[in-house]
Amino acid sequence: LIAAKALLDRNPDPTETEVRYWLAGNLCRCTGYDKIVRAVLDTAAEMRN
After folding, report:
1. Does domain 2-48 have CATH number 1.10.150.120?
2. Where are the alpha helices (DSSP H) in 1-49?
3. Could you point out which of 1, 33, 35, 46 has its C-alpha 20 to 30 Å from the C-alpha of 25?
4. Cα–Cα dist 16/24, whole Å
């Protein structure tokens, strides 16, 4: 959550690639984290509106 908040503070309209880059050190490749990335992108959209 801290990494996602830092990203959105810095860039309120991140791309999926940027989200994945910012969260890379916090996510395990053994799980499907597409929902986490989607949640960050959805949150960014909500914050812009």
Report:
1. yes
2. 2-10, 16-23, 34-48
3. 46
4. 12
Total-model pTM: 0.81
Q: Per-residue pLDDT for 37 more than 90?
A: yes
pLDDT of 32 higher than 90:
no
Q: What residues does each domain of the chain span?
A: 2-48
40 within 8 A of 23, measured Cβ to Cβ: yes
Q: Using CA of residue 8, residue 11, residue 15, residue 17, what is the dihedral sign?
A: negative
